Amino acid sequence: MSECIVCGGTDAFTPLYAGLVRCPRCGFVKADMSLSDDEARAIYAHNYFFDGEYADYLAEQRALEKSFRGQLRTLRRFAPSGALFDIGCAYGFFLNLARQCYDPVAGVDICEEAVEHCRAAFGLDVRCGEFLDLPLEPGAWSTFTCWMTIEHLTQPGEYVRKVAELLPPGGHFALVTGDIEALNPRLAGPRWRLIHPPTHLSYFSKRSLTRLLRRHGLEVVYCRYVGTWRRVDLALHGLLARKHHKLYELLSKNPWREWMFYFNSYDNLYVVARKTG
Ligand SMILES: [Zn+2]
């Protein structure tokens, strides 16, 4: 019998929606599937960042940086400086901004092409592979970040355990992930836009995330809904490109296609946790 990563319960998870199951004790929701490391690696090849979950990740750079700048400002209220390690750093946009305040900065990502970009475009110290396999020195990194990544992991509980073990007392772990218990997903039910296994495997809430962090000695010090900046044409791509291609082509030729807008659907949690003891 496998244990719930959040509450440690061994009761069988019960069906929530097609493909999703929920822990009857703590409400933690996960995809009802298991993914091997090789399968996970295959998902996060080039297609994931281009025409997959993102229309064109590199074209979103300015919008992503604007979002990351906001997240950085919040993080600095709790951890103004020190050594920062980013888990799932993608193309390095966050690390490249973070190094203005933190020293050193480093990161890891499973996607080889993204890691190459981090090195070539920004000269960042980024490794390609699994965070769980990295030999990192305990106490060397005072802040870990994990932006919209924990929901993708095959072993999120082990990631939190490792972060907690590596952090010095008073160190911080900041993350952003969806909240399946927020109003919007409650209304949308199985049609909530963030439900898409196999890329999203874990579906946290304020409750379950707080409990998972506390289980590993991390106390939540900040928890708010956060929005993201999007480019108009790339947002349209997500809405129209597949079903209404001609309309999308027409609209995306307009001069306002590169405008950006801030969108907060109040279902993405930004959590900062501090290591106690
Ligand atoms: Zn549970």
Could you characterize the architecture of this molecule?
- This protein is of the alpha/beta class.
- It has a single domain, classed as Vaccinia Virus protein VP39 (Rossmann fold, 3-Layer(aba) Sandwich), CATH 3.40.50.150.
- It has helices spanning 37-43, 46-49, 61-78, 93-98, 112-122, 156-166, 183-188, 206-215, 232-240, 245-251, and strands at 14-17, 20-22, 29-31, 84-87, 105-109, 126-128, 143-147, 172-178, 202-203, 218-225, 228-231, 260-263, 268-275.
- The strands form 3 sheets. A 7-stranded mixed β-sheet has the order 6-5-4-7-8-13-10, sandwiched between helices. A 4-stranded antiparallel β-sheet has the order 1-2-3-9, with no helix packed on it. A two-stranded antiparallel ribbon has the order 11-12.
- The protein is globular.
- The model has no long low-confidence stretch (mean pLDDT 91).
- Zinc ion is lined by residues 4, 6-7, 9, 23, 25-26, 28.
- Residues 4, 6-7, 9, 23, 25-26, 28 line the site of zinc ion.
Task: Give the structure's gist in a few sentences.
With 277 residues, the chain is an alpha/beta fold.
The CATH topology comes to Rossmann fold
Instruction: Write down the secondary-structure element order.
Output: EEEHHHEHEHEEHEHEHEEHHEE
* Helicity level: 25-40%
> How big is the Rg?
19 Å
- DSSP E strands, number: 13
Distance between the termini: 32 Å
Which strand-content bin applies to the residues? Answer: 15-25%
Based on secondary structure, the structural category is alpha/beta
Q: Give the number of helices.
A: 10
Give the CA-based shape. Answer: globular
Looking at CATH, the homologous superfamily is Vaccinia Virus protein VP39
